[in-house]
Design brief:
The chain is mainly β. The protein contains no helices and eight strands. Helix content is about 0%, strand content about 55%. Strand 4 and strand 5 form a beta hairpin.
């Protein structure tokens, strides 16, 4: 399952690493949009297979952030 950016913004902090097991609702990353920081959470339990973005980069709505398997 690809985790996509829900809004345009800047990646402030990536809270997980590749191959890390996460539970449903676990914090994955923090994205800043319009001066507000929003935490993205895992929709289900799984393993972070791939991280597509780095801290400090900008993303558009629908941009790939990471893959959860």
């Amino acid at each position: 399952q690809e985790i996509l950016a829900p809004m345009p913004g800047k990646i402030v902090k990536v809270l997980v690493g590749e191959n890390e097991q996460v539970g449903a609702g676990a914090s994955l990353l923090v994205i800043e949009a319009m001066k507000m920081q929003n935490e993205l959470r895992a929709p289900r339990a799984g393993r972070v297979e791939k991280i597509y973005i780095a801290e400090g980069t900008g993303v558009e709505t629908g941009g790939k952030l990471l893959r959860l398997v």
